[in-house]
Every structure is written in C-alpha cells, then in structure tokens.
Amino acid sequence: MDATSIWQMFAEHPEFFAMLTIPPVTAFVTWAHVWMALKMLFYPIRFWGIRIPNFPFFGLPGLGWQGIVPRKAGKISGVIVDQTLSKLGSLDEFVQAMEPEQMAMFITDTVDKNLESLIDEIMLERSDVLWANTPYAIKRRIYAQAHDVLPEIMQSMVTDLTYRVEDLVDMRQMIVNKMEGDRRLMVNMFLKVGQKEIDFIWHISALIGLVFGIIQMFIFLIVPQHWTVPFFAAIWGLLTNWIAIWMVFNPIEPRLIPYLKFFSKAKGFPFIKLQWPHIAHFRWQGGFMKRQDEVSDVFAEIVVNDLVTLENIMNEMMYGTRAAQTRELMKSHLYQILESPVVRTTLRLSLGRREFGQLKNTIIDKSISATMVPIRDPDLNKSRASKIFGMFRDRLRALSPHEFQNLLRPAFREDELTLIILGGLTGFLAGWLHLVLVFFPMM
Length: 443
Known about the structure:
This protein is mainly alpha-helical. The protein has helices spanning 3-12, 16-20, 22-42, 68-71, 73-83, 91-97, 100-113, 115-133, 136-163, 165-168, 171-181, 183-222, 228-249, 287-290, 292-307, 310-319, 323-334, 341-351, 353-375, 378-397, 401-404, 409-414, 416-439; strands at residues 48-51, 62-65, 255-265, 272-284. The chain is elongated and about 110 Å long. The mean pLDDT is 78.
C-alpha cells in the first residue's frame, strides 16, 4: 500500500477531521500532564488538603497532596549522604580544610571582647544581689584573671572540638535534620542541580506525545472504535513519563554510536558546512551524567553554603544527639578558669559550695551560647566555605557515573511509580475529554 492509498483512506474516513486532532491534542496533553507531574514532585512544600487520622494512601496525612521531595526530605537526604556525600570524604577532613586554628582565633577574639558582660550575666543569674554588692575591685580582679587565661583556654577548647568532630557530630543526622527543618532547601537544591533535566523531561514529552499521537491516529484508522481514544491516551501517558525519566538517567555509562556525517556546524549562515562523508560517533548518555562537571560546580556550592557549613557543624555539636559529649569536653577546658586561686576563693566564699557547683553548669550553658555567636557570623561561614568548595567540586567530578546519578535519582526513584501512574490517569481523563468534545459532536 503506497502513501496515496493511505491518504485516500484517511480522507474518506467519516471522522477524518477528528482523527487529525489526535496528534496535536496528544502532544499538548502529554506536555501538560508531565508538567503537572513534575510540579507535584516538588510542590506544595507543606501538605495541602484535608487532614484525616491514619490516612492509608501514599504516606500522606489526609486527602490532599504534598510534594514528594519535601514530604520525604529526610529519607531522600539520608540516601544522598549514604550514597554520595559519604564517598567524598570524612567530616573531620572537611573541618581540617576549614583551618580550625584560624576559626579558634576568631571565636576567642569575639568572646574576649564580650567577656566582662558575659561574666556579669552569669553571676547575676546565679546570685544577682551578691554580685551587685560585690566591690568593683574584686570584680576587676576576676575580669583580669579571666582575660589572662581565656585566650589559651578557648583556643585549646575550639581546636579540641574541631579535631574531635567525628566523635561529636553525626554528618548524616546533621544533614537530615537540616533538610527536614527546611524542606524548601531540599526542593531548591534539586531544582538548581537538575533544572536542565527537569526542563528536558517536560519539553521532550511533547515530542514523544506527538509521535504517540500519530501512532494512535493510525490505530484508530485500522480499529475505528471510540474506546481506543482514552485507552491509548492512558497508555501514552504511562509510557511518556517512564521514557522521559529513563532518558535523563540512562544509559549511565557513555556509549558511542557510529553514524555517517555529511556536514559540520558553522558560525554564520547557513550554519552548516558540507564535508566528505565520514564515520563520526554520537556520545549517548543520560543527560544528567553528561553534565557531571557542570552539576558538580552547582552541587558543591549548595553543599558548602547550606549543608556542610561551620554553623551547621557546630550547631549539631552543641545541641545535637551527641551534645552531652561536647559538654563534657568543654568542661575539661572551661573549668580551668575557676581553678585560679583568686576566682575560686572569691566565688566559694561568696556563693557557698552548692551554688559554686551550680555555677559550673551555668558557665557551660553561657559559654555554648557565647561560642555560637561568632560561629553564626556570615563572613566567617563564607570564608570557611571557600576553603572546601574546590575539594567538594573536584571529588564530585571524580565520581563514577553510577555514583554521580545518586545526587538526583533518589528524588525520582522515591515515587517514580506514582508519577508514571499519574501520567496514565491524566492521559485517560484527557483522552475521554477529547472523545466527548471532538469525536462525539462530529458523529
């Protein structure tokens, strides 16, 4: 059967014009439902809908929706740490690259400037009347003694904390806590890292939908049954989402496909230059892995500025699951301030043994707060981030394609089946609507 005969069959078909609408409608519907599926992957950040206790579907708290990535931020971030970040190096290695001696000097200088007000705050909290009536000469001796011993003690303490960071901080828990506490950060991370892949999935879906629409048009020509319109629309919806996601991550390893090349690109019009035919090779690889160097720069910037930051590390150290160990280490350093004859004699006589013991706990609490003030300084965090950016970037670039795909793959893998089923469902609904609005009025 030649092309003329096929065209004649189309032209003579009683639903010719309705059939012609199948390819463009399928392309548009596919493009639209893939856009919707991608949006539902990331939004809304918080659950939107009606909360129902013990709701059994999709791990949701009720009838409604929450983006898959923000809903499972803790689980996805844990996978990223286990499968990718843990391969880039240890937390101790990252902290040492931040130059802890310089950090200790910065923290010590900041605390020393506010030392007298810190001592006043501690003493007024323990015994405000007593401290208010303490002669200034005695206070001055305590201030002077603290100023003398503080730099060495703080320098030693901060250095000790940073060198024992692996014992005091669980990097996986730190990043999971950060992501669960700020789910928008997780969404922004995936959008920055994978924006080109997301756009590719969205736009290639229209082309895939157009191809499927042409196939469906021929199917309707052979099997002129109206049920085929919504049925195959659902099939195309399922296949389009699956193919689009598959193309982003597959093949994982690059494959060189030989082809016959007749021209090369040119800068000016007509933008191509004819050449003698020769065998060239097309590098076929999943779009995400193909951009490994580019993505490494973006992801490394996110890691050093938002995840493995000095503030996050110290915050986990001071207030996280291993905070008790941190307090014990700090005690061994800070209690030296109280061991000088001047301070110990003055405070013991003034406060008594019991109050003096409670004072030690207050000193630890206030010292933690005082230490975190300079740690939160944006300039300090920015300068430390610059120390480890190159390390992260280079090691990300050195990952194998199998390891590298785990930066983005967990977000899609987590509920990939949901996205594919959603494509089938929306395809069926669109196909049914197409049937009602276009085919039935022409009957």
